[in-house]
Specification:
CATH superfamily of chain A: Winged helix-like DNA-binding domain superfamily/Winged helix DNA-binding domain
Shape of chain A: globular
Structural class of chain A: alpha+beta
Oligomer: homodimer
CATH topology of chain A: Arc Repressor Mutant, subunit A
Distance between the termini of chain A: 44 Å
Protein name (chains A, B): ArsR/SmtB family transcription factor
Keywords (chains A, B): DNA-binding, Transcription, Transcription regulation
Largest sheet of chain A: 3 strands, antiparallel
Radius of gyration of chain A: 14 Å
Helix content of chain A: 40-55%
């Protein structure tokens, strides 16, 4: 195990700067119901969550894809803690550039 | 010309009840940049507009498709006035069922 992991800091995959987040990419991420369920769960629980804790009904590789899309759109931050990926909603950052969007999309039950 | 048209009431294509509007369908409508530009224009100008006045750079049949998608998602109302289709944003209705969404998606410049 590398030092960073021993310290619990983990590896960090690439994330866009919040200023580079595009509405187009955010909407493409949120139009998928599985990805929206992830965002909703992070939004309502308001805590960091490991990928395995969302109870998704898709394969692990599909789930990984969905988390990657959310991260690349700027909606979540991911960091490794040991072998787990922890996910954090970039709530205040998104609220700054797209005010009201998360509340509208994730702040209530879905269809 | 039929009586309704002579009276200027026009024909009315089918619209969903606002209670039947689904977040999934609304996001699928808004994920397209052309459709988003239509919604933004209706949102910011705050007036009814004929289909031909949006300056869209797509063919007429493609434009008609985009307007149909927006209508079927519950985002706009359409009515015929003579041979023109007039479009109205269902602003207060959408605000009621998806508060904050239109402001977040259409209330500012795009990417």
């Amino acid at each position: 195990m590398r030092t960073a992991e021993r310290k619990g800091q983990g590896r960090v995959p690439a994330h866009p700067e919040i200023g580079d987040v595009s509405l187009q990419q955010v909407l493409e991420a949120l139009v998928d119901p599985v990805r929206r369920s992830i965002v909703r769960e992070l939004y309502t629980s308001n805590e960091d969550r490991a990928c395995g804790t969302f109870g998704l009904t898709v394969s692990k590789s599909t789930a990984t894809h969905h988390f990657n899309v959310l991260r690349e759109a700027g909606l979540i931050r991911q960091r490794y803690v040991g072998t787990s990926r922890m996910n954090t909603l970039r709530r205040s950052e998104i609220e700054e550039v797209l005010p009201g969007l998360l509340e509208a999309v994730a702040g209530r039950g879905d269809d």
